[in-house]
Automatic annotation (TrEMBL), chain B:
GO terms for molecular function: ABC-type transporter activity; ATP binding; ATP hydrolysis activity. It holds the Pfam family ABC_tran. This is ABC transporter ATP-binding protein. Residues 5-235 form the ABC transporter domain. Keywords: ATP-binding, Nucleotide-binding, Transport.
TrEMBL record, chain C:
The lineage of its organism: Bacteria, Pseudomonadati, Pseudomonadota, Alphaproteobacteria, Hyphomicrobiales. It is found in: Cell membrane. GO terms for cellular component: plasma membrane. Residues 102-294 form the ABC transmembrane type-1 domain. It is a multi-pass membrane protein. Belongs to the binding-protein-dependent transport system permease family. Signal peptide: none annotated. Keywords: Membrane, Transmembrane, Transmembrane helix, Transport. This is Carbohydrate ABC transporter permease.
């Protein structure tokens, strides 16, 4: 990270070097007091709470987290529960589609916006405004649009297109696509902004060099620009990915997990078991699995970004 | 001589801003032309127009006798080297050199041969498998030149290629570019704001200001016979000394009354009557002591500041009431407060009309 | 003086009348351009359609919705549904409309925004200028923590707030928003302060100014842009939150998003789509206003959230 920031704290090391204890507690005191909320948050929430959750996921806690240690029982039960398995499958299916489409659409829109078009800021404003809205609003609007009788389907049938079918939120096999449409509506503009920043970060002279070399525009994007945008792409994947794992509000608002359990997701499963299912151990085990998923996404990224030879350009 | 690049009546507007206006320039085959000027003078814009990276508003561009005004950059027979190198960062040096040729569908054998030749000329064979991130600035710029080289073109365009390098590397690469030109004998158009680069490299220099070429001539002419005050002040470091005054016949009278005979001056235009004008003389043309006594003009001056530069010494004094610098050998001991005799020969100086700023 | 130093062009290639000259001829409609704008307009319709539907539906009457179509403009626009959504729509428990939720959201958003930004600004400042042993480690964990799903920390936090006696109150939500806003905001301020000239800070130290004095008198006055970005990020983020509101606020303090979801998804009886959409518009109004007013700053905010230190 920023090794450029001058370690000014060192500057305070005076000739009479204080003892170790003094240096830890008395040195730089106001800064340490000021950083106390951060230190407390890190220790209590991001370390303490996470450890607590992992620990209690190995107990048989029911209504209260007091249970005794039962090893992997909760996890065995978790993966024996069809609702959890459906949730996981939904997350994988929705997540991979959402990730791919968000990146592809976001990139394509960014490229289109980058063609020195007219009304650029109007297009950008239109594409990004859904991102300012909450998932609840997003879910409810699309729920209404996809309402089978009065929404788009009903309207188009009423206009004479009787074969038109758009009942995805009522159709267990299609409901994930309903989620996808709403999710893409909400998030692609954001991805576009990221990608556009990446595109605009490409040295203009590289484009000139490619034109002199006679590289067609599409080839320049594929062979030169996209590889140069690796940093932005990785960041986008991590942000979109960790957002997908958290997916909760949108499902609650759009389908509430229905029809049946066909659009359940892990975050909702965990929430329900913790706060209304009366089986905390199950919820905690599910939460730990979510954590694991995020780690699987994060660790390769962290390694690429900060590990290796510490190479960053 | 055969014209290599010819620019006719070139005009470029960005909206209502005129960047270049009715610009004409003819460049001979094998000539090394430097476009020199401060930033914003239009020199890079002109180069981009020649390359086809900017659409011109009016006028024509010919390269090797072909009208290329509407052609794509790749079809103009040019190669270009950029300030930021503009290498493709994810490709090895070899791929960087060959990418354009591969996209154009050239047979592999010929690509290999061209890459090998360019690598040999620029001595970058050991670097071919490296990526740009693992190269030094000088090596990167060599690769960038190589990318122009493999295109086997008539005209090379350089857009401030050395500006991102440190002083030492800059002078090394400068020599190398000169060597390259001597070996290849291509036409080269080179944009820079560094007058040393311009003076050392160019066959001819075009000094630009506000989108207009002020003077187009060989370095010696530019240096010794600048066409106007702007060129005179821009070229030379430390810059030319200017003494404002009035010219009447064969006598120049400085504002403080000092009279300087200018009979030996080679006038471009002769004016009748008294004219407000400026006399310019370069620091190295002001002589000191015994040497000064043989000069047509001499005067007493007091040394105000002494700047030893190693090989020479720069001294500040006042002549005819205005600050004047002169250059002398570092062997001559100079002291602040010392009175010395200084003198110069007007035949080596310049006279400008104070109003039009043009050379007299 | 002639304006150009021209060499007489006595060369054999003198320009003919039909030679290319000036601008390249560019047809106004190229297939590429038509494609470009078609795709952009298509996507714009996708993004705009829900907004259109939301607004028109909210201005219609129920019979008009039942027998009309979703594209149609309201024949007689009326704000009745808006008034009902605001003051008398039922959530399944009560029939007070969205108004209580709106005020709860205000009561949550304002203090949460202020507290979280202040703490993050101090954090960022301490991280850049007053580094102490371990400060970077804490910061790294903080950033890493921002990617952990909230569900992982939710239950222990419920227990902690219960122990503190604030569970089910506004204080609890404010605390939670401060905690989870900390990673991104700290990153934002840290990067911003790191971009300021260090000499300024050094000069202030040489002048004998201490931690807080430098912060309030030197750093804060220079930080307006980043405060605007943080403000936008927090106001929209906290206003749009659902999960923390539903868990920590308690029934009486439910923020607007929770109320909205309850009105639409848990109301009994025949659904009143115009009221639902009016409620949805009302809930979206605050972040939308922030978005349209802030313009480029919003973009800076979301982009700033994406760049890593």
């Amino acid at each position: 990270m920023a090794d450029t920031a001058a370690p000014l704290a060192m500057g305070a090391e005076r000739v009479d070097r204080p003892g170790l204890l003094q240096r830890i507690f008395l040195h730089n005191v106001p800064a340490k007091i000021a950083a106390l909320p951060m230190v407390a948050t890190v220790l209590v929430v991001f370390v303490g709470c996470v450890a607590w959750t992992i620990y209690y996921s190995f107990t048989n806690s029911k209504l209260l987290p007091t249970g005794k240690f039962v090893g992997f029982d909760q996890y065995e039960r978790l993966f024996a529960t069809s609702r959890w398995n459906v949730s996981v499958w939904n997350l994988i299916a929705y997540g991979s589609m959402s990730l791919v489409f968000t990146l592809v659409i976001g990139f394509i829109l960014a490229v289109l916006i980058d063609q020195k078009i007219r009304f650029e800021s109007a297009f950008r404003t239109i594409m990004l405004y859904p991102f300012a809205l909450s998932f609840i609003v997003t879910g409810l609007v699309w729920q209404w649009i996809m309402n089978p009788t009065l929404g788009l389907q009903g309207t188009l049938r009423g206009l004479g297109w009787t074969g038109f079918t758009f009942d995805w939120i009522a159709n267990p096999r299609m409901v994930l696509f309903a989620l996808l449409i709403a999710g893409l509506w909400h998030g692609t503009g954001f991805c576009m902004v990221l990608m556009l920043a990446g595109l605009r970060g490409v040295d203009e002279e590289v484009w000139k060099a490619a034109r002199i070399d006679g590289i067609p525009t599409w080839r320049t994007y594929v062979s030169i620009v996209i590889p140069m945008m690796r940093g932005v792409l990785v960041t986008a994947v991590v942000i979109i990915g960790s957002g997908i794992v958290r997916l909760y509000d949108l499902v609650v608002a759009l389908t509430n997990g229905g029809p049946g359990i066909s659009s359940e997701v892990p975050a909702k499963y965990v929430f329900n078991y913790m706060f209304s299912g009366g089986n905390i151990g199950q919820g905690l085990a599910g939460a730990t699995m979510m954590l694991l998923t995020v780690l699987i996404i994060m660790i390769p990224w962290a390694y690429l970004e900060f590990g290796g030879k510490g190479r960053r350009t | 001589m055969q014209q290599s690049v010819s620019i006719r009546d070139l005009t470029l507007n960005f909206g209502s801003v005129k960047v270049l206006e009715h610009l004409n320039l003819d460049i001979a085959q094998g000539e090394f032309i430097v476009l020199l000027g401060p930033s914003g003078c239009g020199k890079s814009t002109l180069l981009n127009c020649i390359a086809g990276l900017l659409d011109v508003s009016d006028g024509q561009i010919f390269i090797s006798g072909k009208n290329v005004t509407w052609l794509e950059p790749k079809d103009r027979g040019i190669g270009m080297v950029f300030q930021s190198y503009a290498l493709y960062p994810q490709m090895t040096v070899e791929k960087n050199l060959s990418f354009g040729l591969r996209v154009a569908g050239m047979p592999k054998a010929e690509i290999d041969q061209r890459v090998a030749r360019a690598a040999e000329i620029l001595q970058i064979q050991p670097l071919l498998q490296r990526k740009p991130a693992n190269l030094s600035g000088g090596q990167r710029q060599r690769v960038a030149i190589g990318r122009a080289l493999v295109r086997d073109v008539d005209v090379f365009l350089f857009d401030e290629p050395l500006s991102n390098l440190d002083a030492k590397l800059r002078s090394d690469l400068r020599v190398e570019i000169k060597r390259l030109h001597q070996r290849l004998k291509n036409t080269m158009i080179y944009v820079t704001h560094d007058q040393i680069e311009a003076l050392t490299l160019a066959d001819r220099i075009a000094i630009m200001k506000n989108g207009v070429i002020q003077q187009l001539a060989d370095p010696a002419t530019i240096y010794n016979k600048p066409v106007n005050l702007y060129v005179a002040g821009f070229i030379g470091s430390p810059s030319m000394n200017f003494i404002p005054g009035t010219l009447d016949g064969e006598t120049f009278t400085a504002n403080d009354g000092t009279r300087i005979p200018v009979g030996a001056y080679d006038f471009v235009t002769r004016l009748s009557g008294a004219t407000k004008s400026v006399l310019g003389v370069r620091p190295e043309h002001i002589l000191l002591g015994d040497a000064a006594r043989n000069m047509p003009f001499q005067t007493q001056a007091e040394i105000e500041i002494v700047e030893p530069m190693g090989s020479e010494t720069l001294a500040w004094t006042k002549v005819a009431g205005v600050p004047v610098t002169f250059r002398c050998s570092s062997d001559i001991p100079l002291h602040v407060g010392e009175k010395v005799t200084v003198g110069f020969d007007i035949a080596r100086g310049s006279l400008f009309n104070a109003e039009s700023e043009a050379r007299l | 003086m002639s304006m150009t130093a021209t060499i007489p062009a006595g060369t054999p290639m003198a320009a003919g009348a039909n030679e290319p000259r000036g601008q390249r001829p560019k047809p106004f409609f190229t297939p590429k351009k038509i494609m470009l704008y078609t795709v952009l307009v298509f996507f714009s319709l996708y993004y705009l359609f829900p907004l259109y539907v939301m607004l028109t539906t909210s201005l219609k009457t129920m019979p008009e919705i039942r027998f009309g179509n979703i594209f149609a403009l309201p024949t007689a626009p009326s704000f009745d549904a808006w008034f009902k959504a605001w003051s008398s729509a039922c959530t399944g428990l009560t029939c007070n409309g969205l108004a209580p939720g709106f005020w709860n959201s205000v009561k949550i958003t304002i203090p949460s925004t202020i507290v979280s930004i202040f703490i993050a600004a101090v954090n960022g400042y301490a991280l850049v200028n007053w580094r102490f042993k371990g400060s970077e480690i804490f910061f790294s964990i903080l950033i890493f923590g921002s990617f952990i799903p909230y569900q992982v920390m939710l239950y222990p936090l419920v227990m902690i707030t219960r122990e503190l006696g604030i569970f089910g109150s506004l204080q609890a939500v404010i605390l939670i928003h401060t905690i989870f806003g900390m990673p991104i905001l700290t990153l934002l301020f840290r990067n911003y302060f790191a971009s300021l000239p260090q000499e300024l800070f050094k000069a202030a130290r040489v002048d004998g100014a201490g931690f807080w004095r430098i912060f309030f008198e030197i750093m804060l006055p220079m930080s307006l842009p980043i405060f605007v970005v943080a403000l936008i990020l927090q106001i929209t983020g906290i206003w749009n939150d659902f999960l923390f509101g539903v868990v920590f606020a308690g029934n009486v303090n439910y923020p607007m998003t929770v109320q909205l979801n309850n009105i639409v998804n848990s109301a009994q009886g025949t659904p009143e789509y115009n009221v639902n959409m009016a409620a949805t518009v009302l809930t979206g109004l605050v972040p939308l206003t922030v978005y349209f007013v802030s313009g480029k700053w919003f973009v800076r905010g979301v982009a700033a959230g994406a760049v890593k230190g």
